[in-house]
Structures are given as C-alpha cells and as structure tokens.
Amino acid sequence: MSALTETDPTGAGFSPEGLARIAPWMDRLVDEGRLAGLSVTVARRGRFAFARACGQADLARATPFTLDTVTRIYSMTKPLTSVAVMQLYEQGLFQLDDPVSRVLPEFAEMRVAVGGNRAKLETEPARRAITVRDLLTHTAGLTYGFMEATLVDAQYREHGVDYLAREGTLAEMTARVAKLPLLAQPGSAWNYSVATDVLGQFVAALSGRPFADYLREAVIEPLGMIDTDFFVRPELMPRFCATYAYDRARQLRLFDDSVETAFAKPPAIASGGGGLVSTAADYQRFCRMILNRGTLDGTRLLGRKTVELMLSNHLPGDLAAMGTPRFAETSYTGIGFGLGFSVMLDPARAQILGTPGEVAWGGLASTAFWIDPAEDLSVVLMTQLVPSSALPIRRELRVLTYAALAG
Predict the structure, then answer these.
(1) φ/ψ (deg, to 5) at 360
(2) Mean pLDDT throughout 47-51?
C-alpha cells in the first residue's frame, strides 16, 4: 500500500468530491472545540484514498495532530489479541468450544448472580462451562467495573478488577476475575467485558510466553506495526498525544497528559483488552492483513478460513436480541459479533450505511476502525476524547465515507 501522504480517490473507486466532504467535517469538530485533533485514513483496493489530520495532539503544548501521532487505542487492542488466540487455535492447541478452565483452571465451578444486594449477592452454579468462544464473543457472563449498572460490576470495583492497573500481574488479575460471580449464564447474553483480557492470560498460559512478548513477536512485529506497543517508547514520546474529556460546560479538559502519563513506561499488566498505543498507519496494516485473509507483504499470520471464521457472526441473532440494544453511541440492532469484531448483519435494521459482513470496533478515547471485505475497504479514525459515547463521530464518518463510493 502506498504511503499515507499519497492518496488516489479515483483509483480507489471514490468520488473525489464526495471524499472532500470529510475534511470540512474534521475541521468543524476542531474549530467548534468538540475535539482537540483527529486523523482519518481511508484505504481501498490496496491504496489510500484519503489521509488527513487536523487540530492539536496536545492543546497546552500546541503540538499538531498528524498522521503519525501515537494514540491510545484502548479496545482496538481486542482484535489483535483475538488474532493471537486464533494463531494458537490453528496450532491445534484447543477448540473453540473447549472450556477455558482446561487452560485456566481458576474458571472451573463458576457461579452466576441471580439477585440479592451489595451486602449479600445471591448466586447459582453456572449451567455450563465458559468456553473460549464465549470469551471471544463477550458471552461468557463477565463485565467491566466501569459499567456501574449491576451488582456484579460493583464487585469488580470493590475487588480492584482493572487490567490497566499499574501493579500486580496478568495472572493475578485474571484469578481475581475468576473469583467473582458472572453477570449471566455463559452463552445467554452479550455483555462487553474483560473477556479479552482473560484471553491474554489464556495466550500466555497456552504459549508458555508472557502475553506482551507473544503479541509483539507473533502479531505486531510480523505486521510491521512499528509504533504499536503496550507503552510509548522514549523516541516516540514527542509524537504521543494527550487525551481529553468534557467538563460540565462541554469544554475540553485534560484527561491524560502526553508527557506525564503512565503510558511512558512498560505496564505491570499487558491488557489484551485495552492496553495498546498505535498510529493510523500501523492500524491500517492490521486492517489490510484482515482484508487479505491473514497475510500482509508476504507474511502469513492466519489461514484464510480462520479469518473467514473470525469475520462470521457467532451469535444466534444480533446484539439487541442478546440483551444489548445500544452500546456507546451505536445501535446494535442489525449488528452481530464475531471472534473479536462486531459484524454488520443488516444495514437497514442498523439504520446506517454499510455492508453485510463488514467488521468493526472502537476504543474508549473515540478511536475506531471498520473493515469491509466486500468493498475491499478499511477506515481508521484516530482521536482522543473519552468516553467514546461523547460524540457520534463514528457514525458520521461512516456516512461520509460510504456516500463517496463511486465504483
């Protein structure tokens, strides 16, 4: 694929006039103070059709947001971890319907919350074991402490379940999760969760290597993702951005500094669910590998049929039917879930432009990507605003991009 600065809308099958609408949309977001800065890269048919950045990576230091700005991608880490899991699957080390307790015995004999209160939670035994597929599809019954919606996520907070914590180990945090009750019976509901972090420990236990080392050596480095890691290397710090949130007046306030940040040194725990930093160019390389069914620049990470399995919907219906009608700013009617990605099932029911079979996900700081195999298209949005539900920019960018397709 050509460099980010070399774009060819017509050769990529886009209307140049249509794609040109993205730039003023970006500028408005910055000029109106809704975002400090952002970048958008659109690739199709092996070439970039659009690549632009605007605004600031750090408002206090007046650092421009550029195409090579290093951002916290948070949950966009999950698809890379899922690739690592499926590499081990291809080695015949497990089956998707295997109980995860065969590798992580702490998950045997799980219990499920059925009522009670914070003082005394009522539970019942899990009707079946948590499988590897359950973890990959967020149907294991796990949750996140930050959800603040149930008695179970309250227990996550009380017991310090946080894979971005700067002390402890991946194994210790995972053991802590296994001691807590499940939110739902395995396989019965979709709940966004620490499941992919648990898969990081699964990879470590099955491979016999620290998870961070495995992900770097088996996924990140073979893909040539040179600026992607669980921390920002010293030479990359000048390109690292600040993260922002809104105050009560809807003005941008600093959430995490670009210099005084925990991401400046290796973490105690490598979070497979949300620990990576990356760049637009790096993540487009990951997207291209998926579009190429597991290979990039002559290096094969996964087999073609494995990627096809990952991109398939593994739920009995859509996410709304599995108990999640909406997550962040996005409706989940017409959206399914594969092995590490959301999967578009029906654009009409989802009420958004798209293609059946398209996969996507995003991160806490409003980063996002989607991959459309039918259109040979990948789009990466990089910015740093938490939470991702603060603005509907992902949906807006989808409309702008798909409306520009010409051939």
Answers:
(1) -160, 165
(2) 96
